[in-house]
C-alpha cells in the first residue's frame, strides 16, 4: 500500500493570502506551508535552508513541493545545492528574477538556475503573467527537464486570477503522486 505523499506548500514573494489557491489547498487537504522568516525582502540562502529543513522532517522520496512564483526559483536553487531526490514538484508561475520588471528587494535569486532538476516536475505558466514572459517560463521548464503546461490567460496564477480551489492545478498535482 502506497502512503499519501507529504505535500509542502511554498509561496513566493509576499506569501500567499487566504484567497490564493495554495492557501485553499493547505486548509482543505492539510498540506504543510514552508514558513519563511522574511516574505517581503527574502534572502535565497535562508529560503533554501528552510525548504531543506522541512523536507528533512519527512521521507524525502515521498515529498511533493508546490511552488508559486519566486518559490519556483528557490526550489531550483535548493535542488542545485542539496540534490535531494523528492517525489516531484509542481512549479506554478515561475517569476523571472532577471527581468527589469521584477520587484526589487530580493537577495540571491538571480540568475535563475538552469539545471536539470533531480526529480519529476511540472511547470505551469500563463500567457499574460506580468512576472515572466511565456517564452522565459518555457525556457525554465525546458532547462529544468519539466513537463510544460500553458493554461492560457490566467495572469500570475494567484488570488487575482480568481481560480479559487484551482481544480486544474489539483489534477496536475495528482500526476506527481
UniProtKB/TrEMBL annotation:
InterPro entries per the UniProt record, alphabetical: AB_hydrolase_fold, RBBP9/YdeN
Name of the featured protein: Alpha/beta hydrolase
Cross-referenced Pfam families: Ser_hydrolase (PF06821)
The organism's place on the tree of life at top rank: Bacteria
Molecular function via GO: hydrolase activity
Amino acid at each position: 500500500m502506497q502512503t499519501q505523499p507529504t505535500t509542502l506548500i511554498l509561496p513566493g514573494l509576499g506569501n500567499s493570502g487566504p484567497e490564493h489557491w495554495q492557501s485553499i489547498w493547505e486548509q482543505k487537504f492539510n498540506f504543510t506551508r514552508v514558513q519563511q522568516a522574511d516574505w517581503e525582502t527574502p534572502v535565497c540562502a535562508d529560503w533554501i535552508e528552510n525548504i531543506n529543513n522541512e523536507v528533512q522532517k519527512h521521507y524525502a522520496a515521498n515529498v511533493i513541493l508546490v511552488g508559486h512564483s519566486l518559490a519556483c526559483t528557490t526550489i531550483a536553487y535548493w535542488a542545485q545545492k542539496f540534490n535531494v531526490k523528492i517525489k516531484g514538484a509542481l512549479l506554478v508561475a515561475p517569476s523571472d528574477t532577471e527581468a527589469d520588471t521584477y520587484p526589487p528587494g530580493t537577495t540571491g535569486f538571480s540568475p535563475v538556475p538552469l539545471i536539470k532538476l533531480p526529480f519529476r516536475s511540472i511547470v505551469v505558466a500563463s500567457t499574460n503573467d506580468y512576472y515572466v514572459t511565456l517564452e522565459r517560463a518555457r525556457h525554465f521548464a525546458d532547462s529544468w527537464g519539466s513537463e510544460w503546461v500553458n493554461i492560457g490567460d490566467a495572469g500570475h496564477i494567484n488570488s487575482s486570477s480568481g481560480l479559487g480551489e484551482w481544480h486544474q492545478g489539483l489534477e496536475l498535482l495528482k500526476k506527481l503522486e
